[in-house]
Specification:
The structure is a homodimer. By secondary structure, chain A is of the alpha+beta class. The first copy, chain A, has 5 helices and 3 strands. Chain A has helices at 5-8, 12-23, 28-33, 39-51, 74-106, and strands spanning 26-27, 55-60, 63-68. Chain A has a 3-stranded antiparallel sheet. The relative contact order of chain A is 0.13. Chain A binds a DNA duplex through helix 4.
Chain lengths: 112, 112
DNA sequence: TATATTTGCAACCAAAAGGTTTCATAATTT
DNA sequence: AAATTATGAAACCTTTTGGTTGCAAATATA
């Protein structure tokens, strides 16, 4: 069973859950109220998030509060950032291309 | 059929493909050589990547070259970055908490 | 103590994902 | 023209996902 941060945040419901608990810890029922799926479904999502370290479940009486561990998103951030240079470089050369095109246009375009 | 960037990068093979074509465009067979799954499987992955805008397929003779459109990862970057404050704030407050704890300890803990 | 609440988890299901083989088609080579 | 190459896509299969209902267990409340 693959269980990494990338797979965890692939599901929109899980991304929403993370958004909810980013501000403050919530117990499972509270989280469930915000969705129209069963508690069991939400529970499963939360387990996946917990298994890959994106949240921690803390028991408090009969409730379990889910606390965000958003720093785990660093993994995603790092992966994405390694490519920023590529796409920004691409835009740079597009920019150059456009400038070049513009100067060509001043000469009234290429003939034929 | 859900088809967004988050779902696209959830698969490790697709992340590898993106890494390969970040530097330079490759045709489908070239990409396939780097994996031990069938061309058809790679083709499917590339279609998914193309459908969500992470790469563009350009025909050139009988070959199709796949060009990275890594700027699409901005979507992921933006989503992650909105939480950076949270986890950095959390570390800050952990820091505060530890300081507070330390000063409490100087008073030899709370009584009863 | 009897009842409510909050949760963990098993059993079961349909759909999606990821893979394969096979065949058709279009462009390149010989 | 014939053979080869590169690809698109259908048909099929197995595993994973995301969801459900139902029940047991633990904690709180009346």
């Amino acid at each position: 069973m693959r269980r990494d941060v990338f797979q965890a945040i692939a599901d929109p419901t899980r991304r929403e859950i993370l958004g909810m608990i980013a501000h403050k810890s919530l117990n499972i029922n509270s989280v469930t109220e915000n969705f129209d799926v069963s508690r069991a479904a939400i529970y499963k999502h939360m387990k996946i998030l917990a298994e890959c370290g994106l949240l921690e479940i803390k028991q408090q009486g009969r409730e379990r509060f889910c606390e965000g561990r958003l720093e785990k998103l660093n993994e995603v951030s790092d992966w994405v950032e390694q490519y920023r240079q590529f796409w920004e470089a691409r835009f740079d050369s597009l920019d150059n291309y456009l400038k070049e095109l513009q100067s060509k246009n001043k000469k009234h375009g290429r003939k034929k």
